[in-house]
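Sequence, please.
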C-alpha cells in the first residue's frame, strides 16, 4: 500500500520534470484516489489534485465528471492555471450505484482524465473500511509529521502541534464512526446517518488541515500521501 501511494504522490513531479525538459507548454496532471467506498444513501465528497506541470499557463480549463449523472465537479471551469500551480477539484453528489466515474479537465487543445471506481456498500462495511483507513493515516501522521510537529525532512511546524492537531481530527472521526455502529446495532438508522456524515466532515477537516500545511510543515510528497489516504 505504501509504495503504491508514493507512486501516486510522485506522479505530478515526474510529469513536470519531463514537460520542463521537453518544453511542452501547458501540461495538465490529475491525481486522486482510484477507488472509493460510500455508504448506501449517503453523499459522496472526494477531492482530486489538478496541476499544470508544464512550462506555460493553461487557460479556459473545463472540468467535468462522466458516468453517474448525480455527481458533479467543482469548480467546473478554471480561467487560468499558471505553470506549477495546483487546483483542488471536488466531486460531490449521491452515488446511485457501483461504477466508474471519469473526471476530466480539458483546454481547447489538451485534456487529462482520472477514473474513480465507486463502490456503494452497507453502512457497516463502510465503518469497517473507514476505521482501517484511519489506522493507516495515524501511522502516516506519526511518520510524515513527527510528534514535535516536524516534517518528514526536519521541517518545523508553525505551532509545534501539527501531528497532534491532525491526530485529534482522526480521533474525532473514529468517535463518530463508533457512535454510528452502535446506532446501527440498535436499529436506529437516522442517528447512524448523522454520525456517518459527522465522521466524513472530520475527515474533510483533516484534509483541509493537511492542505494548509502543504509546503510548510508538510512537504508535497507527505501532503499528497496523507490526503490521498483520507479520501
Amino acid at each position: 500500500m505504501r509504495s503504491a501511494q508514493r507512486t501516486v504522490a510522485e506522479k505530478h513531479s515526474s510529469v513536470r520534470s519531463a514537460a520542463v525538459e521537453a518544453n511542452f507548454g501547458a501540461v495538465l496532471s490529475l491525481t486522486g484516489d482510484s477507488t472509493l467506498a460510500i455508504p448506501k444513501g449517503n453523499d459522496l465528497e472526494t477531492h482530486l489534485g489538478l496541476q499544470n506541470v508544464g512550462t506555460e499557463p493553461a487557460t479556459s480549463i473545463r472540468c467535468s465528471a462522466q458516468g453517474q449523472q448525480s455527481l458533479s465537479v467543482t469548480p467546473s471551469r478554471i480561467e487560468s492555471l499558471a505553470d506549477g500551480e495546483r487546483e483542488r477539484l471536488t466531486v460531490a453528489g449521491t452515488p446511485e450505484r457501483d461504477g466508474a466515474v471519469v473526471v476530466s479537465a480539458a483546454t481547447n487543445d489538451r485534456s487529462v482524465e482520472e477514473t474513480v471506481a465507486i463502490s456503494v456498500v452497507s453502512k457497516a462495511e463502510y465503518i469497517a473500511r473507514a476505521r482501517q483507513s484511519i489506522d493507516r493515516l495515524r501511522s502516516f501522521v506519526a511518520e510524515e509529521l513527527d510528534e514535535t510537529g516536524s516534517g518528514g525532512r526536519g521541517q518545523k511546524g508553525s505551532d509545534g502541534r501539527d501531528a497532534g492537531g491532525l491526530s485529534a481530527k482522526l480521533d474525532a472521526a473514529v468517535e463518530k464512526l463508533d457512535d454510528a455502529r452502535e446506532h446501527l446495532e440498535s436499529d436506529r438508522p437516522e442517528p447512524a446517518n448523522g454520525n456517518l456524515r459527522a465522521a466524513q466532515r472530520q475527515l474533510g477537516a483533516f484534509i483541509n488541515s493537511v492542505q494548509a500545511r502543504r509546503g510548510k510543515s508538510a512537504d508535497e510528497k507527505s501532503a499528497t500521501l496523507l490526503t490521498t489516504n483520507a479520501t
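The first helix runs from residue 2 to 9.
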